[in-house]
Amino acid sequence: MEKQRIELTGKDQWLVFKRLLSYLLPHKKMIALAMGLLVLTVIGDVLGPIIIKTLLDDYLTPGTFPTSPIVGLASAYVFIQVSNVIISYFQLLKFQEAALKIIQQLRIDVFTKVQNLGMRYFDRTPAGSIVSRVTNDTEAIKEMFVSVLIGFLQSAFLVVGVYIAMFILNVRLALITMLMLPILGWIIYLYRKYSSIFYQDLRERLSQLNAKLSESVQGMGMVQAFGQEARLRDEFNDINDQHWQAGKRNIKIDGLLLRPAIDLVYALALIIVLSYFGITSFSNTVEVGVIYAFVTYIDRFFEPIKQVMQRLSIFQQAIVAASRVFALLDEKDLVPAQIGTAGNISNGEIEFRNVTFSYDGQTDVLKNISFTAKPGETVALVGHTGSGKSSIINLLMRFYEFKEGDIRIDGESVKDYADAELRNKIGLVLQDPFLFYGTIESNIRLHNAEMTDEEVRAAAEFVQADKFITKLPDGYLQKVTERGSTFSSGQRQLVAFARTMAADPKILVLDEATANIDTETEVAIQQSLERMRIGRTTIAIAHRLSTIQDANLILVLHHGEIVERGTHQELLAHRGLYHKMYLLQNGIVETVK
Amino acid sequence: MRVFLELGWFFKERKKQYAIGISILLIVAFLGVIPPRIIGLVVDEISRGTLSAAFLWKWLGVFAAAAISTYILRYIWRQFIFGSAIILARDLREKLFRHFTRMSPSFYQKNRVGDLMAHATNDLQAVQQTAGAGVLTLVDSIATGGFVIAAMALTISWKLTLIVLLPMPVMAYMTNYYGKLMHERFHGAQAAFSGLNDKTQESISGMKVIKTFGQEKEDIEDFKRLSSDVVNENIKVARVDSLFDPTISAIIGVCYLLTIGFGSYFVMGGEMTIGDLVAFTAYLGLLVWPMLAFGWLFNIVERGRASYDRIRALLAQPAEIDDQEDAIDRQPSGDIQFALEKFQFTGDERAALHDIHFTIKQGETLGIAGKTGSGKSAILRLLLREFDDYEGTVMFDGVSINSYKKQRLREAIGYVPQDHFLFSTTVGGNIAFARPNASIEEIHEAAKLAHIHDDILNFPLGYDTVVGERGVSLSGGQKQRISIARALMMQPELLILDDSLSAVDAKTEEAILESLKKTRTGETTIITSHRLSAIQHAHQIVVMHEGTVAEIGTHESLMNRKGRYFEMYELQQLEALVEMGGEA
């Protein structure tokens, strides 16, 4: 459910609509074809009654039945009907196809945009609402294209065709029936005006109702603990009642202005036609066929209008959905830009130089961080939650842009490397290993099609993941579903290790990679980590201090600052914060104070 | 169609409205057959050249009267039938909500919020459709179809009617067949769509991994492939969907051809007039809707039945915990005594609690310590009477808590839960939740006791600031303190703090405990806490381990014992030191 309401003025709606129409351009050929077919079906629709009119006036009224003209008329009628049926099938299909392709393009655009957004955007936007933009909102727009716009086009063409035919048959009457257009326009205007108010109101009440319901269900424990059930019921019934009242108002508006009103105008048009011909017949002869044709045309004319009216609310919803989609497309929070002037990363030396960073521009989460990790060395980051460990990794990985200070790899700023180079040479292992839908193999290989099966296996063997993988019923082709929930956290982490090793990075970044593992795989994970680090510069956030005792440098962070630095032994000897953390983790209490 | 029987109680309840609505529908259907007849009459007079002004105006007057009455009557039946349908939705929703308020926590563990919401929204919608559009479609299609066919056969020509109606069943059959095809293909389209949905969800959740491996382009390619699937599956649907209109117009075309052909023949033979023929073609147009409506009706009814079944099943679930007969209608006040042999959560083999014996004297404070999962919260949940099925007794004021009226027992307890749930109303409204009529002074007093008053004054609108997404976002500690103020508003006989000071800093914790001690002299307090500082001043401390009491005593006696409590305490001192950056 969308919490924030979007208020759109008429002008905004028009702008959104225009922007939506711009998506038609790439498909103009297909749309032109569909429109061509539509013109043909309209011609067919208009010609049918004229044939019957000819039959009525030229043959039936005088009572003469020469065979060949009758057969001619009949075959013409059948031919028109049959071709009309076939053409209209393809016309309907083409329009739907075009609408589907348009929405596909829109979806791809939105998804591409999402891939280019910075982590900052994902921090402040719930995943569910981004998914909604990509799928549900675009689906609502599709509904509009399929059921409103196409219907609208069909009606417009039909109205034109019917009028042309009426003008050919009888200019005066055609002019008189033109009177219906402003009346219909006025009804549609009124309906749009009031239904948008009442319909909006109904939807608003419904979302209040749902919000109240969902909150009550979630907080029912509290409600019951405080014995407030009766009061809550009253409150709910109040909203329920208001929603019902709004529903009643909508039924009234629909009853006044929707189908019943359109049918009334239809009756009016028929009465006008009959009186016109009736009055004319007092002085002149009137051809019955023309009456038939007019009656039929008026019927044809109203059918699509009724359909479009029923679907106007879809239009409204689609415009709101589209405005949300466009807001995402216009989002400015992009991934940090890479200049790409630097060459390749060959040694893997990392240097943080006076880096200060803040997520919100107000509180600094990193203050003047400087350290160097020489090629092949391991630097460990330790500290309490919120001390800034993860931020260091976030900056190194270029998830967030920083302004103060610099991070250098092999002497060049990370900002200067090409994106691909950074991604190829830096491997990150997250605390919560993320597995994609697919197989174990596809999760190690990812989208890298050039990787051979041997390389995949070698990577798995290197991190000792092959032991559990080969025991699976389908081995490397074992299906991974629901984020890999069928595997233990340790097994998932091993697959994530293999994935990183398969890419063979120069720099290894471990974000609490050993935090959530089960005891069964712990040994394998520890051994693998050791092997992975050989020959690679490693930056590791460690949850368990025991895993980083052999690090070349340990940085102890507190409130965004490095408060202690040194090797494990040096820091223990220092008897500062690291020492206390170490005691805490080992459950040694007697030496405190 | 069985759902109409199942909803019979409602139709009976509103039989007047439905009777009137349906009668009006019948009248409207009847009025619908008048205009084509008039067109035919006028055409006949014109073709014979005998049309008189009086005749024309008389019949056009009838026409206009029929049209205007139709307009008015249609407006009216909508009020009666659709108006009743939304009353059904409203009443069912109210019933559901009432039912929800009576259900115990285990119900909410079994049913996810999303599912309950779906029942109260989508399912109700479907039932409403059945009682509104369903009734309309059933009555209208039969009435309109019947009247039109009668008018064609009785007033024009039964022979022509028979001939022309022949292709109509083909149309009903074809559209039905397409409907089935659509249904199948729609599943495919739906599956492709949800595949795309899952893909998007996964990409967003795994965004860091994708970025780390620089797989953005490849992921977009993957998305393109899936979005093509969606297009292809939907085109399959469109192929069937696009058949509907042409098929209908093809069959109508055949009917027209038959009408004109045989009609002309009958006109020539003098069995019919030209006006009859024109009227007949107009009737033909009116028959399309009833034919299509039947397929549509089955759809509505099918969905309505499934939805109504789900709603009834939900309403049939009994409340697990109810008052006993002749339950005590008195608010308990006195000592609390636990004599629990065994308790296990439904569906769990292991005992969540066993062999727990202790007494809390009225006016004293009990502290409960222990790790996550040691059974601290379970003890409290038994006290709140969320469960009845345990071996042993829990006595309050000398009587088993099961003997009290639930309402009265809860009036005695002020509960501050772990997951401090606040409602999206004002801060003041949240504090006064249990006593909506409390004075502002009382609210301020409770807030001061919970040491949240000053924070609240700094909110944009003070006590009128709305909590949650639409208002101020609160820190965990602020939420906890508002929850405490909310419980204090009740001035409860028993105050329960379930690890509710975990997010406030040590100084505030101390201040809150101090103010509780001062104001709550005659009443009982139970505090569970992960952090021992919150309970070390309690009169009695229970240390829980694996569902039972491991140690019991005062802070001093437990420290002297050098057991679990002592160990926990020492470790926490160290932890506090680390949190402060190593300097005490």
Q: In a nutshell, what does this entry contain?
A:
The complex is a heterodimer of chains A (593) and B (584). With 593 residues, chain A is of the alpha/beta class.
Detailed description of the structure:
The complex is a heterodimer of chains A (about 600) and B (about 575). By secondary structure, chain A is α/β, with parallel strands linked by helices. Helices cover about 65% and strands about 10% of the residues of chain A. In chain A, the strands form three sheets. A six-stranded mixed beta sheet of chain A has the order 6-9-10-3-11-12, with helices on both faces. A four-stranded antiparallel beta sheet of chain A has the order 2-1-4-5, covered by helices on one side. A two-stranded antiparallel ribbon of chain A has the order 7-8. Chain A starts with 9 loop residues before the first helix and ends in an 8-residue tail after the last helix. In chain B, about 40% of the residues are buried. Chain B is an alpha/beta fold. The model of chain B has no long low-confidence stretch (mean pLDDT about 90). The chains are: A alpha/beta (about 600), B alpha/beta (about 575). Chains A and B meet through helix 2, helix 3, helix 5, helix 7 and helix 8 of A and helix 4, helix 5, helix 7, helix 9 and helix 10 of B.
